[in-house]
Design a protein that fits this description.
The protein is built from 17 helices and seven strands. It has 339 residues and is α/β, with parallel strands linked by helices. The strands form two sheets. Strands 2-3-4-1-5 form a five-stranded parallel β-sheet, sandwiched between helices. It has a two-stranded parallel sheet with strand order 6-7. It folds into three domains: 124 residues, Rossmann fold (3-Layer(aba) Sandwich), CATH 3.40.50; 67 residues, Helicase, Ruva Protein, domain 3 (Orthogonal Bundle), CATH 1.10.8; 130 residues, Up-down Bundle (Zinc Finger, Delta Prime, domain 3), CATH 1.20.272. It catalyses: DNA(n) + a 2'-deoxyribonucleoside 5'-triphosphate = DNA(n+1) + diphosphate. Keywords: DNA replication, DNA-directed DNA polymerase, Nucleotidyltransferase, Transferase. It is an enzyme of class 2 (transferase).
Length: 339
């Protein structure tokens, strides 16, 4: 069934125990992923990931995983991403189970009205589906205000507009930015703080964004010589590592859902056109090249590597510039192999 209008919060925060399958789909993949994460909290469950291709290869796997009792006694939710019609047979088997221990959450991109998976989710009483549209203009600004409230920030409309613009319309990037501001200000949901322009000036994605993005983009393009030249210009012992890594994370977060749509059959041109104004025209050749070079699996691996390095730098002393250079060179080599 479709989640009724006005019933989304209840469906996510107080989930119906009889629902076995949740489908979040639509062009706003970052928003779908955010709603799925909120549902995970509402369920009080740990994520147990599966890929759509794994379910396609063995449709019985989904029902087996959902019906299995957790070895450690905790509650699980089976998380399938990216998901599409390839899991429809597995979902049918899930509905045929006499009982299910764990609900299944599927995160998909845009699905056609004729999609077998969509028809299953909308027709069955043990399923809920929700379509997400990419927010624009004031809707996006209101979303930033709401996301800020969730992490303990009071955000004015003016700063919400700035964060929305700097995030390129990507909710995941906007939340990452707001979480960074909240951490800096010591804000929590129970102890909210006012987001001020000075903090955004200091830490915001639009602060020297082009320079920070350049290093990561050179690595992802595999342009080794230019990358080494740029790294050589960084002052020894500089504190650029964290801002560069975060700029690279924003790029990877933008690329991942687009690449997953291409692997489900959408064309590169169609995916890029669907981004509209969220993609600056000068960046189109770059994004097209990156989408053709990096697979979803390799993007996920790159994101994991970058996030791990950021945690290492923040938690213990490292030679930041050397660690950054090593990671970027590794990505550049991987990009060269991917061409």
């Amino acid at each position: 069934m479709k989640i009724p209008k006005g019933g989304l919060a209840q469906a996510l925060d107080r989930p119906d125990q009889d629902v076995r399958f949740y489908l979040f789909h639509g062009a706003d993949e970052a928003g779908s992923r955010g709603l799925a994460e909120r549902l995970l909290k509402g369920l009080g469950a740990e994520k147990s990931p599966l890929t759509g291709q794994a379910v396609k290869a063995d449709p019985a796997m989904l029902a087996d995983e959902a019906g299995a009792i957790s070895l450690f006694g905790g509650k699980r939710a089976i998380w399938v991403e990216p998901a599409g019609d390839e899991i429809a047979e597995g979902v049918t088997a899930l509905f045929e189970l006499p009982a299910s221990e764990s609900p299944v959450i599927a995160v998909a991109g845009t699905l056609r009205k004729t999609s077998a998976l969509l028809k299953l989710a909308e027709a069955h009483s043990a399923a809920l589906s929700h379509i997400g549209y990419v927010p624009e203009g004031r809707d996006l600004e209101r979303l930033v205000v709401d996301l800020g409230r969730d992490v303990g920030l009071r955000v004015t409309p003016e700063l919400a507009q700035r964060v929305a613009s700097a995030s390129g319309g990507n909710q995941a990037v906007a939340l990452q930015e707001l979480s960074k501001f909240a951490l800096y200000l010591g804000a929590e949901r129970e102890n909210p703080k006012e987001l001020d322009p000075e903090t955004v000036d200091l830490l915001g994605a639009d602060c020297a964004e082009a320079d920070l993005m350049r290093l990561g983009d050179l690595a992802l393009l595999g342009r080794m010589r230019e990358l080494l030249d740029e790294l050589g210009r960084l002052p020894h012992g500089s504190s650029e590592a964290i801002p560069v890594l975060r700029a690279l994370q924003r790029r990877l977060l933008m690329l991942a859902p687009l690449r997953s749509r291409i692997e489900r059959g959408d064309s590169v041109d169609g995916v890029m056109t669907s981004m509209g104004k969220a993609l600056f025209w000068k960046d189109k050749p770059l994004i097209q090249r990156l989408l053709s070079t990096w697979s979803s699996e390799r993007l996920a691996e790159a994101a994991s590597r970058v996030a791990q390095l950021e945690r290492q730098i923040m938690l213990r002393p490292l030679a930041d510039d050397a660690a950054l250079g090593e990671t970027l060179v590794t990505l550049a080599r991987a990009a060269g192999r991917g061409r």
